Each structure stands twice: as structure tokens, then as C-alpha cells.
Amino acid sequence: MSDEEAPVLIVGGGLSGLTTALFLAWRGVPALLVERHSGPSFHPRAHRVNERTMELMRTVPGLEEALVEAGPWALEDFAMVIGMTVTGPEMHRLNLAEEAEAVIDASITPVPVSSAGQDQIEPVLLQFAKDHGADIRFGTELVSFTEDDSGVSAVIRDRTSGSTQTVHARYLIGADGHRSAVRSALGIGTHGVGTLSHNVNVTFESPALPRFMKGKEATLYYLRNPKFTGSYIGTHIPERGSVSFDYDPSKEELSSFDDKKCIQRVRAAFGVWNLEAKVVEILPWEMASRVADRFREGRVFLIGDAAHQMTPAGGLGGQTAMQDGYDIAWKLAAVLAGEAGPGLLDTYEDERKPVAEVTVARTVLNYIERLAPHRTDVPRDVKADNIGVTIGYRYRSRAVLTEEPDDGMPAENPRTPSGRPGTRGAHVRLERDGIPISTLDLIGSSFVLLAGPEGGAWTEAAGALPITVYRVGGDLVDVDGNWAERYGVGPAGAVLLRPDGYVAWRSTEGAVEPGAVLEKVLAQVLQR
Ligand SMILES: Cc1cc2nc3c(=O)[nH]c(=O)nc-3n(C[C@H](O)[C@H](O)[C@H](O)COP(=O)(O)OP(=O)(O)OC[C@H]3O[C@@H](n4cnc5c(N)ncnc54)[C@H](O)[C@@H]3O)c2cc1C
User: Fold this and answer.
1) The CATH number of domain 2-68+112-186+290-370 is 3.20.20.30
2) What does the domain layout of the chain look like in residue ranges?
3) pLDDT by residue (tens digit) across 195-209?
4) Average pLDDT, the chain
5) Distance between CA 440 and CA 64 in Å, rounded?
6) Residue nearest (by alpha carbon) to ligand 1 atom 18
7) Which residues are catalytic?
8) Is ligand 1 within 6 A of the CB of residue 16?
9) What CATH number belongs to 429-525?
10) 3-state SS class at 254
């Protein structure tokens, strides 16, 4: 058994683990990721890289383009249909682009979404992670780990050769999915509604699919008939689709779902009893709602489904997983580089757990409304709507200088941004050197100070600090003249944006000693 060292060991190569590896590597931390499968999943579970996730992804040059190329359908193409079968009459059609409340339009964000499935997103993340120097090992699993004050020692095993080795890492990330062995080893429990239904996802191929689905490729079907309750969605391969259905384990054994039985369900979903089809993969999964009681134990962090499991209704599980990965990566990189104190790592749970709680609750309600209106045993009082949990969620932690009074709401409407610390820095159209950009184009690699047209004292004072500095009305042109309103500051005010684009602090006006103020703010936010 040999030993090796890594700054960060990531267990799990799904959306959350790959995102963490990519953003750590991009920030100069060559993490080691182990994934027990021999390659990325080819099961199209999650679809889309949504707007908030894309705002984070685009900070790495080329990544936004690669993700859009992997899934080029536009929002206008997306529809949700409720019916008895895919080929039968539609009982209800919801065109997402026509749902004013659901649409995240160009006034909220300039980013495109990607309609790619998880089977296409993961290879893109993998390629970018490797290109930036992450060490990704497929066919390798975590066996056990111990931690002490200085780091984590983990035994990993090559599943082909059976050989084991010990990795000494400063930190361990449990990105190992909803059955997380890392979470169990830490003795961290979960809470929530629990299992809502038992499901099987069948990815299949049929030469007839392109004919049935012509013009409806971007449609998600919710189906209910005497032989099928579940959903259907296509994939980027015209002949390949995926049905998902629930079953009652007290009446049917999971092991009974062999290829023959699964194809019968595919036929029932389509209402075509002689549909020629073959199974590509069968994936059992649970519709469930659970949140880990803690997201951190010492030097070990839980992210993605290991930290929170939600229903697919709302399409937010994978997004939340990727956003967790971005969050823990910038914080770990800052601590490992000595730019931030270890206290910054506490803010991972302080910020991401409340977001997980409200997002999970929202997706349970979506499930109830769409598929199980008869269920009365589930809480319906959710304090954020879909757009709120998608792109309006708020953070409260020591990495944010929260202003009082605080209404305590988990999200704000992104159409009417307040600019309060702990909210996502709003998109404002700017021009730099004659080129149109967004405030969102300024974030990513470092903290950013945006000062108003009369905020020269802030920009001068910030010059001595590790902050990128801009003056709106100076080097940046405020195209619509709404910067001050969207950030709630006056002409001499300033805003500090974190590497994730969240407002860490703002001053509505100038200050007597701006340098001292900024130093104090940065010391608090970075927990130095
Ligand atoms: C049917 C369905 C539809 C969905 N639709 C959407 C959607 O439209 N939008 C959306 O955003 N989300 C959706 N989701 C949710 C999304 O798929 C998950 O939230 C996402 O996969 C979570 O990613 P993860 O990286 O946290 O976990 P996972 O994808 O579960 O990855 C965990 C990885 O860890 C590996 N692993 C486990 N133990 C070990 C070990 N000891 N050593 C090494 N490796 C290990 C596993 O092999 C696995 O690859 C859907 C889920 C399902 C089931």
C-alpha cells in the first residue's frame, strides 16, 4: 500500500464532484477526485444547466459555450405536457416561455441556459477539470477515512487491480450521492419528508422515436394511465429516450424489473403496444426529500445529493449540486492560499444548508402539485417560489455583512433586486472600452469593488487591497442608468461582490476613512 498527498480529495465524480474539481483546479488547487464507476454516467437524469448555475460556470472561459453547444435547445422550445400517453391527446401543455412568472428573462440575467442532459454535462465538466489540472481517477473508490487536526487520511482502492493506497489530504469532500458513505461514516443523519415514491428510470432506444417526437424533442411528459404513472423525456440522441415510473415495493420486487418488463412500461408510456425498443440502462431511484443535519464535520464537507436529496420536480437537484461545488471550491481555494482564515469554511454550511432546505421543500411541493395532489401529509407552506429558489436565494453568514432590519425571507424576487448584502449581485448592462458587458462579467476570480461615479475615494483606497476595482460612471458606462437603483447605493456609494457574485457589503455613501472601512470589511468576510 503506497501513500500520496493531495490538497483536497473529492469522493464522487457526478455533477457536484466534477464541478468542485474543476473550480478548485481553475483556482490553482489540483484536487484528486475518485469515482468508483469507470466513466461519467450516461444516464440523462438532470436536464439543463439553469441560469444561476450558468452564471457561475461562465466564469471559466469557454465553459458556457461548451455547455450550450452540448444542449442547444432554447427556453422557447421547452414544454411540459400532462397526458395519458406520449402519443395520445395532451390534457394540459405548459410552454415555459409563456409562463411570465417562471421566465428568467434578459432583464434578470444575460446568460443562456443549456438544455444538455446530465450525460452530456458531466463529460464537459470532466474535460475542463482535467484541462485545468485536476487529477480525476475513474474506477477508484473510497474505502475508509480518518481525520485529525492537520488533515484527512483516506484509503482508496483501484477497482480493477484491487490495489489500495492512502491519500493524505488537507480536506475531504463527500460528493458521493444520496447514499453517501462519507455522511454515514461521520454519523450525520438526515431530516425531511423522506421517501415519496420508489421509481425506476429506463433509458431505451427505439428506431421509431424520431418519428413520434418530431418537433417535440424538448418536451417533458407527465403521464398517468392504468399501466403507467411517471414521465418521459428525450435525449440528445434522437433514437434514445428515458421513461421514469413509480412502483409499489409491497406489490412488485425491484428485481422483477428486467428488460422485458421495462419495455412493457415504455410501451405503456407511449400507448404503442408494439413499439420496437431495447433497454440501454435501468436505474432504480427514490423520489425523496432529505437534508443532512450537518454539511460539515471538521475537515470533511458534504455537497450535492450527499447533503440534500430533492424531487426532480423543478429540475434543481443537479443545479444545487453544482452550485455547492462552486461555493466550497472558492472558499477552500481562498483558505488553502492563505487569503482567508479557516472560519470562511464555516460559511459553506451557514449559506448552503438554508438554500438546500427551502429548495428541497419547494421541489416537494412541485411534486405534490404535479403528480400527487391527493397527498395531504406534506408541508405546503414554502416561503420561496420557483424563481426564488432558482436565482433569488439569499445568504446569511459571517461572509456577508447583513444589514438590519432583516426580514428573514429565504429569497428575493430577482426582478426587483435590493442590492442588500447576502443577495445575488444584480445584472446591470455596462460598457467597458466600448464593449457591452454585464456586472456578471466582472465576477469570478477575485472580490470586486464597484463604486459609484462619485466614489473615487473608494476605488483609490481599494487599490492597496486584493480586490479588483471598477468605477461605474468612470471606467464602466452604466448603459441603462440603473446601477445605483439595482444595488441600492448613492453616487458616492460602493458595493463589494464576492467571487460568486453575491453582495458581501455595501455602503450607500462615501466614508471618512474608506481604506480602514474596506480593510475591516474584507477581514470579516474572509474571516482573517
Ligand atoms: C430521474 C431523475 C431526474 C432528475 N432530473 C433533474 C433535473 O432535471 N435537473 C436537475 O438539476 N437535477 C435533476 N435530478 C437530480 C440530479 O440527477 C442529482 O441531483 C445529481 O446527480 C446529484 O449529483 P451528485 O454529484 O451530488 O451525486 P451523484 O450524481 O449521485 O454522484 C455521486 C457519485 O459518487 C460516486 N460514489 C459513491 N460512493 C463512492 C465511493 N465510495 N468512492 C468513489 N465514488 C463513489 C457514485 O458512483 C456517483 O457517480 C434528477 C434525478 C433523477 C433521479
Assistant:
1) no
2) 2-68+112-186+290-370, 429-525
3) 999 999 999 999 999
4) 94
5) 13
6) 318
7) 222
8) yes
9) 3.40.30.120
10) helix
